[in-house]
Amino acid sequence: MITYIADFLYGTTKYPCALLMPRIFFGYFGHAPHHHYQKIFFKGLRAIGFRRTTWQLVFPGQTAGLIKRIPITDTGVNEYHVRFYEDGLIECELEVDRWNSRHWTGPRHHGDDGKELLIQILATEFKEMSKEEKAHVSKLFGAKRFTLECIRPARVGQGM
Questions:
Q1: Which residues contact 53 (CB under 8 A, 6 or more apart)?
Q2: Which 3 state secondary structure label does DSSP give 154?
Q3: What backbone phi and psi angles, to 5 degrees, belong to 132?
Q4: How many Å apart are CA 15 and CA 39, to the nearest integer?
Q5: Does an H or E element contain 41, and which?
Q6: Is 87 helix (H, G, I), strand (E, B) or coil?
Q7: pLDDT tens series, the chain, 160 aa
């Protein structure tokens, strides 16, 4: 429990949570073409059960964020975090939920794992979206990796 509290305090001092940034909690998107496609994807994710959370850490340039609880996988992951950024990037992280003692140490999957998940969701859940729109949205998938800065240096590499 003491380790979890230390990890929590370290992580939450790096970046604010959406509770303190209501504009990001609700999500805002500019007027550039990539923002249009982000907004479409954001609304679609909301329609399939992704929700806003006041507890998600807000990273530099982030304009919106959603999470979705899932049944626990064989790797221990049970939550998806999707973040939208001003530069157009959409990132997904697969992790252990916030209230689990393993939240800060893993398992946690970024980059290609998150991108592949978003591609799968786009292909299977967005049946009404045109191929052209899907192509525009999928070009926005990527990774920023700010989350790694929220792990105490003594804990980096443990379960990551």
A1: 18, 25, 65, 66, 67
A2: helix
A3: -65, -45
A4: 24
A5: helix 33-47
A6: coil
A7: 666 666 666 766 777 888 889 999 999 999 999 999 999 999 999 999 999 999 888 999 999 999 998 887 777 777 888 999 999 999 998 876 666 555 556 545 566 788 898 999 999 999 999 999 999 999 999 988 777 666 656 554 554 4
Which two structure tokens, joined as six digits, stand for 74? 């064989």
The two structure tokens encoding residue 130:
């045109």
H or E segment to which residue 156 belongs: none
Indicate the DSSP class of residue 62.
E
Containing 158, the helix (H) or strand (E) segment is none
For residue 52, CA distances in Å to 11, 65, 135, 159 come to 20, 7, 25, 26
